[in-house]
Amino acid sequence: MIVFSQKKVSQESKNSASIPNVSNQQQEEGNSPKSPVGMAVLLNEVGGSGQSGIAVIGEKDGKTFVTFGISGASKDSVEPVNIYTGSCLALGDVKYPLKDVVGDNSETTLDFGIDKLRNELPLALSVRKSASEKEISVACGDIK
């Protein structure tokens, strides 16, 4: 179960939130939690597209998974999505191609652990309008 707490968020950090991964055993034993194993990235609308959403990045069995939920896309839409170097304000090159968002969701598994992504920050997730209009971003979120 994922629980989000309500807290005041600065303008700088409004595009992402960490999801703590603290086991009940750690809490009961009074141990300090390990660093979060996952994170949520808010995908903000770009250019009046009407699309926004959330991506959850996590790790299972030493592999990173990226799951998207997008609102505002048509049921028939197929939109490329990638992890880019840089930030939404200054996107660099595609670092990791992901499976297209079809309709309103996408799921991709990458063959490495989440710590590799953390060590490569700054990175951003960008959803593109279509395969023929890859230069047009419709939603973007910074990975933090």
Concise synopsis of the structure shown:
By secondary structure, this protein is mainly β.
Please name the defining characteristics of this protein.
single chain, 144 residues, Immunoglobulin-like, 2 helices, disordered N terminus
What does it look like?
With 144 residues, this protein is mostly beta strands. The protein has a single domain, classed as Sandwich (Immunoglobulin-like). The protein has two helices and eleven strands, in the order βαββββββββαββ. The strands form two sheets. Strands 1, 2, 3, 4, 6, 7, 9, 10 and 11 form a nine-stranded antiparallel sheet that branches. The protein has a two-stranded antiparallel sheet with strand order 5-8. The chain is globular and about 35 Å long. The N terminus is likely disordered.
